[in-house]
Amino acid sequence: MSSVSPFLRPLAEDEIEIIRTIEKEARSRYRALGGFLTRAADGPAIAAERFADGEAIVAELLGKPIGFVLFKPLDELLYVASVAVSPEAAGVGIGRLLMIGAERRAQQLKVAGLSLTTFRIPPWNGPWFRSQDYLSIPEERIGSGLRAILDRHATFHDMSRRETLWKPIASCSTGG
User: Fold this and answer.
1) Which of 4, 34, 166, 176 is deepest in the core (most CB within 10 A)?
2) Which letter does DSSP use for residue 129 in this model?
3) Mean pLDDT of successive 10-residue segments in the chain (176 residues)?
4) In whole angstroms, what is the distance from residue 75 CA to residue 120 CA?
């Protein structure tokens, strides 16, 4: 990586295919772990229409997108649908930078926090989010929108290998 720092910015509509490629390449790391994660590695790239349903922040370095986070308001939270970093930029804090961007957006929107679903393993999934102060979401915080996502995930994932996490946003002034 360069000594130049990445910066965050909104996704440009003409970058969706680049971002889809980053997401697909990022998931290729699952293949080395084998087992059930091979299916995640071999799945299709994130559908382009999902970007129309949410908001995305891009991490850019030297004029090139190197990662993104896609999220949308859901059940009085900001649901993180996907976060991915290009393999050549992985492991240097880009994912954390992207999640800080999503946390700031949650504060701007005055929602109670962020929610997401992830694999319990490998280290860059559930364990990484937990190291960033994400917690298991309380059952009473799972609204109808998130429940629908979990039900959809259950049609193609073994849910015992998944977890649903959230991070309350302390500076938010919602009653909840």
Assistant:
1) 166
2) H
3) 81 96 93 84 90 95 96 96 94 95 96 95 91 95 94 88 92 46
4) 23
